[in-house]
Design brief:
Rossmann fold; 319 residues; alpha/beta; 2 domains; Dihydrodipicolinate Reductase, domain 2
């Protein structure tokens, strides 16, 4: 299995560490920053490139991890798909729906194993919650993503590159609620800008109301100016049902008067790579919980949320 990376910063390091645990070496690295490409290639004993077209033509990898900011997506994943390689794409899959739709169609036409990095779907907390709510009506679903953006990823504060916090970071929360409840049909978002002088050029505090296809209602709260403790979580509410998933490995709640306390072991970062590698080895897409076509639906929710920030209206989620 010859593995290549397009993009060597940030999240790529997380994926690389998981591959090392699985005993899967990386053969080649491409990054537009030549110094970073050379540095990571030296660490991995891999070949460095700055042009992904050249890398694909010369190296012909079997598996390609694409780890670039949403605003940097143009044809990288399409080109990778045309090479015939299995694909792992860091979330979110793009900054706009047109790019993502073209990419989805190319992947589907090529019939490739594909996965997107929504690691929360692979958490043992998530698995347990899905079993607990089988056959029960979830009336409300809440989520939050709270942090303070630092200088380690300066593009996070640039809307043209990241698409705002809801699209780039809180996408994990939107995706998890979709996974646990149903599709989101309508959203209405509100936000505040200029909370901090040096964090972002977009709304640093947002709240987004959600209407789900099955009648559930919900909300996602986001901020990038807080030093929040346990900043990524979701909550489910129903008749005699309350579950709180803290993605720092804790599940707490109550169902029919019975207290729920469960401590997980892994947030899903490693397990998602384990699933992907097995899916590639066995050529079994059913092992993937977060394929590209599904991740596109999460992107559509956050694109609609961004649109609502501008219009102030309830916006329909369109794919």
């Amino acid at each position: 299995m010859k593995i290549a990376f397009i993009g060597a910063g940030g999240i790529a390091g997380n994926y690389r560490n998981s591959l090392k645990k699985l005993g899967r070496p990386i053969a080649t690295i491409c990054d537009v920053d030549s110094d970073r490409a050379d540095q990571v290639a030296a660490q991995e004993n891999a070949v460095a490139y700055t042009d992904h077209h050249e890398m694909l033509a010369k190296e012909k990898p079997d598996v390609i991890f694409t780890c670039i900011p949403p605003g940097a997506h143009t044809t990288q994943v399409i080109d990778a798909a045309k090479s015939g390689a299995a694909l792992f794409v860091a979330k979110p899959v793009a900054i706009d729906l047109d790019t993502a739709l073209r990419t989805r169609d190319t992947i589907e036409n090529a019939n490739l194993i594909n996965q997107v990095g929504y690691m929360a779907r692979y958490s043992d907390l998530t698995e347990k919650v899905r079993k607990m709510v089988v056959g029960r009506e979830v009336a409300m679903g809440f989520g939050r993503f709270m942090c303070r953006m630092g200088s380690s990823h300066p593009w996070w504060g640039n809307f043209a590159v990241c698409g705002g916090q809801m699209l780039e970071q809180s996408t994990h929360v939107f995706d998890l609620l979709r996974y646990l409840i149903s599709e989101v049909t309508h959203v209405q978002a509100f936000g505040i800008k200029n909370v901090s002088a040096d964090i972002a050029d977009f709304e640093e505090c947002t709240t987004c109301n959600l209407s789900f296809e099955n009648g559930t209602i919900g909300n996602v709260v986001s901020t990038c100016v807080a030093n929040a403790f346990n900043g990524f979580s979701s909550e489910l509410v129903g008749d005699n049902l309350y579950l709180n998933l803290n993605l720092d490995y804790q599940l707490r709640g109550n169902i029919d008067g019975e207290s729920i306390e469960f401590d997980g072991t892994e947030s899903g970062y490693y397990r998602q790579i384990e699933h992907f590698v097995k899916a590639v080895e066995t050529n079994d897409q059913s092992l993937v919980r977060s394929g590209y076509a599904d991740a596109l639906k999460t992107l559509a929710v956050t694109v609609a949320a961004n649109r609502s920030l501008q219009t102030g209206k309830v916006e329909k989620v369109e794919v």
